[in-house]
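Hi there,

I know you've been waiting on this one. I reran it after we fixed the sequence typo, so this is the corrected version. Both the input and the resulting structure follow.
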Amino acid sequence: MSLPEIVLADLGLAGAALLLIAAVRRWTGAAVRLPEALARHRVLPGAAAGFGWFAEVAEVVAGATVVVAWLAGWPAGMRAGSAGMSVMYALFAVYLTAVLRRNGRVPCLCLDRDTTVSGATIMRAVALSLASSALALGLAAPPHTLLDRLVHLPGAALVALLLVVLVEVTGALRAAQPRVGR
């Protein structure tokens, strides 16, 4: 694999990992379930917030499909799961933009209860949508051997961690800046 393919693959796997981590955190109570988060943000009509469970299921299906397809060396499954992730992350970016415009910097409620909606959370969703789109188009297929596929997992885990930390650091830096006119 070339360097651009490795970066795309690791970003895509990181996106899948973040979807699965978010789902596990919601199911264990460490994060807010999506119907409740949608209701708290007050961006969608009340009835639509009740369908947050559908997004919870879809994120698990898409994320798990990408991980399983990667480990199995199944390019068609990788493209299908990545297409689902691309749509989900794009919709998430649009939704977060609406939340930010309507409510300002409120808790995102996606991975935890504290991270606020910001330009950084929106850009993370956009980046993961674009990387997932590239994988859906087949621009980075799983390597042929299991060992080569397994070698990517630590890199993908590091990318996922860096994406989360980057959002946290930018939020902390923004909060530490003095407000002019206050």
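Quick highlight: The helical segments are 3-27, 34-41, 46-49, 52-72, 75-103, 119-136, 146-176.

Best,
R. S.
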